[in-house]
Write a structure and sequence with these properties.
194 residues, globular, four-stranded antiparallel sheet, 9 helices
Length: 194
């Protein structure tokens, strides 16, 4: 499992082998069964996770009981509730495995140790945080300025393999629309393509 994490790190930054190994040794492996939760609302998030195998959804349930999916995490992606993790406050999010999954988890204490003792690691997370901010900003702009149909088409084009692993219900919750509305969008697209 550690080899995938090592490859992910070296893809972002050129660190010494010693730094990479020392950092990877701070992670604990964990297996998560499909439909099991890595984090539930109200718990304090004590980890940042790297997905080795599987698929997760990170979501919130609004006051009307509707799920709002913030993002999905597949192989080589990172998962956490960053607000809960950094501020050590109860999470507003759920992190659920949609498939049997393997993750590597690092605690806040071990991450802080890495920042202090492995200088390149802080730069690594700064780069990853910047990429996350860019993706979130683009998603916010898309949600404010594009129709659901355009958002669906772009999601399908951007993540063709991911979309095959997701149910319509999960895709609809990610797009902020109902499952029925998503079905109508798919029918409309199918008619255009015939």
């Amino acid at each position: 499992m550690g080899e995938q994490l090592e490859n992910n790190i070296t893809a972002h930054l050129n660190l010494t082998k010693h730094e990479v190994k020392a950092f990877c040794n701070l992670f604990e492996p964990k297996k998560i069964k499909k439909k099991s939760f890595l984090l539930r609302e109200g718990e304090v998030c004590r980890f940042e996770g790297f997905v080795v195998k599987g698929l997760f959804r990170v979501f919130h349930i609004d006051q009307n009981g509707f799920e709002q999916i913030l993002y999905f995490a597949v192989e080589n992606w990172w998962i956490t509730d960053i607000d809960s993790f950094i501020n050590e406050i109860p999470s507003q999010l759920f992190i659920e495995a949609l498939e049997d999954s393997d993750v590597l988890l690092i605690s806040k204490k071990d991450k802080e140790f890495a920042y202090s003792n492995l200088p390149g690691i802080e730069k690594l997370f700064r780069i990853m945080t910047q990429k996350t901010h860019v993706a979130l900003q683009r998603r916010m702009i898309d949600n404010l300025s594009k129709t659901a149909e355009v958002r669906y088409i772009e999601f399908a084009e951007r993540y063709p393999r991911l979309i095959q692993r997701l149910s319509n219900i999960h895709i609809a919750a990610y797009l902020g629309i109902t499952n029925v509305f998503l079905s109508n969008i798919r029918k409309k697209i199918a008619l255009k393509n015939n």
